[in-house]
Amino acid sequence: MTTEMVDWELAVSLGTRIAGAGPQVSADEAAATVEELRRGADRSTSYVREFTGLDAGGLTAPVLVVDRAAWVQANADGFATLLGPVIDKVAEKKGPPGPVTQAVGSRITGAELGGVLGFMASKVLGQFDPFYAPHESPAAPSPVAGRLLLVAPNVVHVERELDADPRDFRLWVCLHEETHRVQFTAVPWMREHLFTQFTALAESVEPQRFLDEGLQRITEAIKNGSRGGSLLDLLGSPEQKEILDRVTGVMSLLEGHADYVMDGVGPSVISSVESIRGKFNERRKGAGTLDRLLRRLLGLDAKMAQYRDGARFVRAVVDKVGMADFNAVFATPENLPTLAEIHDSDAWVARVHHA
Predict the structure, then answer these.
(1) What does the DSSP 8-state code read for residue 327?
(2) Terminal-to-terminal C-alpha distance of the chain
(3) Does the pLDDT of residue 139 top 50, yes or no?
């Protein structure tokens, strides 16, 4: 796979430096946090299965409790997987760049990606990486693609910031992230469907135009403060917006479903869940001006809308047709809600259930 257009080593190195190590913890506290997060993920599997009716059978995906540096490396690997085919096609059409152009361009792109990863690595509590493909072993059956990452220092940082009960907060985080693991293991076509959409979006981007206008947009956003949208919102062509709408519809479903599940299961197993949810919702709004600006530029405001709008969609459909009929959404790609249907659950019910 041709990846010389991105200096991945620089991206990882810079991202790790920007992210920092996180809060100070003793060796004993770190070990206890890792163990509790692992137990929380294991406990959450049965909670999610019983609440949703989604059953992956014997299929599962590994759970990794990581630090910020490992999260940066994992996501750089994920970007390489997504961008690899696109980079290969660009090289086929235009030929390989000259050595100077390649060296300079790859470092610029690596530095940009490293900056994004560094900022995100200090924020993310957990993430299911559906595009991770483990190597097959002759001694074992083909492993399931994907892995669940739980970022221990960020969990500790946020639970301290919210003054939340650590045991309750860690299980609450695990409920959300485990729902994603169940979604992708119980619905095996979801990975390929998302990969196809992301690849189509990446292939539609003109790299030089995106770079030039992206830098201009960042400058304008800094000057204008809170005004303006994310880079994708402002640079997207009609084709890109159509693909992005499809991706946003799917991601809103997945994120909203995970939030719905954690709030549905939480009260029965987490005594302080109401307090945690209230404090966490306030935190999601962002802190200072720079934090809010970066969130907007990176599309994280849209991410927050996915949680809210998706959970509203799931709640409305389950209230109308019940959980079993809601699960028709996972039957085929054609049953996934469009972005318009995320905001009009009755339209999805009418289309899929002819009601």
Answers:
(1) G
(2) 48
(3) no
